[in-house]
Specification:
This protein is mainly α and 251 residues long. It has nine helices and four strands, in the order ααββαββαααααα.
Length: 251
């Protein structure tokens, strides 16, 4: 199993001065998320949420990259200006960081079991949601992640199934497999490729990693290489890395 890294998000916080600045911005510019007056808030949230989410997407739990494009602030309940819930645009418990794949897959899909009454406050529990809410649900109670990024709705959870289906998480195992191959192929020779491959064992599992990458690494070994030799090298390098980690922890 792959560790999801966190079960639910503790809501990000604002200082008193930041809260006042946000209220003043809303009073002047309304709920226009794209307005430049709220740029400071987005930067603050990205920093806070990265820390709270341990650099993981709120839905798929894959690592968030630091380049500008793939990381997006997700509004769990849609913020569309013409929608019924535009008033939740700046509610901190409605916000999380998602990778671009999950954000695009989810889009503006319905996440509530039933429409909320007009002018009602933002929900304070998981009950109204038919979706795994990053701030309210315990992730592992609804979604299990197996080696190689294979997702399972825990016990057939409807909330877990909704996220897996709508974010298209069933496609991610193929995407991650292609990514791993690309990362290894981009290395300058076998000596550089081996440690790079071993770094990924925690996500895919050592046995699966050997099956997946031994043929590729054997070609990078040159004429003396073979899949069995490449597998032996992967396992030896992994064992050495584990020994170093164990020694660092101490008795």
């Amino acid at each position: 199993m792959i560790d999801p890294k966190f079960e639910k998000i503790t809501a990000p916080s604002l200082t008193a001065a930041q809260a006042t600045k946000l209220r003043n911005g809303i009073a002047r510019w309304g709920y226009d998320w794209s307005h430049s007056s709220f740029s400071w808030l987005k930067e603050h949230l990205k920093t806070e949420l990265r820390r709270l989410q341990r650099d993981r997407c709120c839905y798929c739990r894959r690592p968030l990259r630091f380049d500008k494009g793939p990381v997006e602030i997700e509004h769990v309940i849609n913020k569309a200006a013409s929608g019924a819930y535009v008033r939740f645009t700046f509610v901190l418990r409605n916000l999380a960081l998602a990778c671009k794949d999950c954000n695009n897959g989810k889009g503006q899909k319905v996440v509530l079991r039933a429409p909320l009454p007009p002018r009602s406050a933002y929900p304070t529990s998981a009950a109204p949601f038919l979706w795994v809410h990053p701030h309210f649900h315990d992730y592992s109670a609804h979604i299990l992640i197996h080696d190689a990024w294979v997702y399972e709705a825990n016990g057939g959870s409807r909330e877990g199934t909704a996220v897996i289906d709508k974010c298209k998480l069933t496609l991610l195992s193929g995407i991650e497999r292609a990514n791993r191959r690309m990362l290894v192929e981009s290395c300058d020779g076998f000596a550089a490729a081996l440690p790079r491959a071993v770094e990924m064992a925690g996500d895919v599992g050592l046995d699966a990693l050997c099956v997946e990458l031994s043929p590729l690494l054997s070609k990078m070994m040159g004429s003396c290489g073979s899949p069995s030799k490449a597998e032996a090298a992967i396992r030896a390098a992994h064992a050495a890395l584990q020994a170093i980690a164990g020694a660092a922890k101490g008795p």
